[in-house]
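Morning. Coffee machine broken again, so started the prediction first thing and wrote up yesterday's gels while waiting. Chain of 393 residues, entered below exactly as on the submission form.
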Amino acid sequence: MPASNNVFQKNANTSLVAQLIWRQGGLSRVDISRHLQLNKSTVSNIISYLMDIGLVNEGEHKDATSQGGRKPIELTIARDFGCVFGFDLQPSHYRSVIMSADGSILWEVRGSKRQLSFESFVCSVVDEALNAHRGIQIPILALSFSIPGQIDAKNGVIINSYPFTLRDYHLKDFLKARYDYPIYIENDANCAAWLDLHSTLGFDFSSNAVSVVADFHEESKRNDSVIGIGAGLGVIIDGKVYHGSHNGAGEFCSVTWKSGNPNQSGLSTELLKKTIDDKEALASWMEDTFISMVPFFAIMDFDAVILHGGPFSDEEWTRKTIEERASSFIGVLEKTGCTLVFESQDESVSAKGAALMYLHELYSVPGLEDDFTERRSWSEVVEFLQDQKRMSN
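Came back before lunch.
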């Protein structure tokens, strides 16, 4: 039965309030009422509900206004409301995090399981996180995965992942048959974009930016069929991660690439394998990569380009290399006022971004924002978490 306008409005207002507290934190009821232009009694009722379900905590008193009176109380998201697992899966390694509902990291690990098949690899990584979760004792909201390749995020399908040699693989269906949690699947560069939207850009809804994620493929030393380096671009337009008409946005090919080439560029496989240890080879890859981005950045007029991953870990050397070998890229950034940002030290960027992607949907306004799946109502989320608590007792 369709929800009435009153029910929809109530759910929408509840999500708006929860979303604002998550994104800004430390707000009072008066702050929320003023920011969202909602009646004070409406905000008070919503806060009471969010506190009853355990999502919101009252904190310290804020400073009183110049008019005096009672000091307003700060409101924050409760860390123990629930947690989401974020996984970044690569052929040579994986990164896993457990993130609380307020965005705090409760656990993280990096490892390698090269000897396993893809399905065994996925289950092993999830089971490891579930074992670690036993000591956390916070109910699980969802399992969220970052995968290299062309991903249908809405349906949880790996359309094409060259690193994993997978095509039209229904990963969500595989996982749902084994784990009784909501499942989310997303491209690894897009996951980095979700992280940047949250941290680097601070949820600026007018932001237009690109998250560049590069990674060395360490297994290329042992496997001749594996390329030594790869990159993806997560595109943020008007504060939203862009997927494209065919879920292929962010899948990078350089100007030297030719049809049928398994690489992302026309550079030789031999050179790409050397990028891990050879700075000259890495410089050649950077030249090919960043020159290829010049028309894209000139046309799109972005605010920022954010670099993630091991290939960019030496910021001074990377800046110098781009300036010397791809000066036109620096020139187009200056021409358009686009800022070059280095965020290359965090190895878990895509795993954290995968978790934040789910939190973005949790706090989104149903029906008004681009959801990846059929969004659960707050009552359904609470019931799901309570079921877990009952089972653990």
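The chain has a mean pLDDT of 90. Going to sketch it on the whiteboard this afternoon.
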